[in-house]
C-alpha cells in the first residue's frame, strides 16, 4: 500500500517527501482554505517537487462546471488528478475527464455501490472515507474490504485510496483490508514513526557508547 499525504501545507509535504515515503498528495477545499493562499499557485508549488499524483478538488456541482474547472487544474501539471464528488453530475464529469485523458479521484465515497459506479464511470481512484464513517458508528474498514473484494473479483483497475484516516491503526487496517493507497494527515505520519522502545533503545545505545569512551 502506498502512502499519500492529505494536506495543502507545503512544509508538511516537504518534510514527509524528504523521508521518501510519499507517493502522492491529496487536498480538499477545507485543507486549501486553511492555508489562505491562491489555490492554483499552491498546486504549482506542490507539483514543482512532488512527482506522484496530486489531487485537486473542483467546487462546481454541475458536470459542465466541473469539467471546465478540472481542465484548468489539469493544465497546471501533468500529475494533477482532478478530485470530483460522488454525485451523478460528478460521474458525468469523470466520464468526460476519462475521454480527455485526465485522471480523476472520486471523493466522499461511503458505500461499495458508490465505489462501483465511480469505477465504471472511469475513475482512476476512489476515496472511501474511513474516519467519517466511524464518526457515525459505521465500520469504515469493512467498506474498504468490500470495495477491495469487488474490484478484485471483477478485475477493476481503479485504485482505492483509504481517506479520512485519523490514527495509525486505520493505516494498518486499510493496508490489511486491501487499499492500494492510504492518504493521511502529517500528524498520523509522525505518530506512525514513533515507538517508545525505539526511543528507549536509542537512548540506551548512546549511553553505552558514551560509557565505553570513558574507559
Ligand atoms: C481525502 O482525500 C480527504 O481530503 C480527507 O481524507 C478527508 O478527511 P477528514 O474526514 O479528516 O476531513
UniProtKB/TrEMBL annotation:
Pfam families the record matches: TAL_FSA (PF00923)
GO terms under biological process: carbohydrate metabolic process; pentose-phosphate shunt
Transmembrane segments annotated in the record for this chain: none
InterPro entries: Aldolase_TIM, TAL/FSA, Transaldolase_3B, Transaldolase_3B/F6P_aldolase, Transaldolase_AS, TSA/FSA_arc/bac
GO cellular component: cytoplasm
Catalytic function, reaction form: D-sedoheptulose 7-phosphate + D-glyceraldehyde 3-phosphate = D-erythrose 4-phosphate + beta-D-fructose 6-phosphate
Keywords attached to this entry: Cytoplasm, Pentose shunt, Schiff base, Transferase
A GO MF term: aldehyde-lyase activity
Location within or outside the cell: Cytoplasm
EC number(s) recorded for this UniProt protein: 2.2.1.2
PANTHER family, sorted: TRANSALDOLASE
Role of this protein: Transaldolase is important for the balance of metabolites in the pentose-phosphate pathway.
HAMAP family: Transaldolase_3b
Protein name: Probable transaldolase
Lineage, top ranks: Bacteria, Bacillati, Bacillota, Bacilli, Bacillales
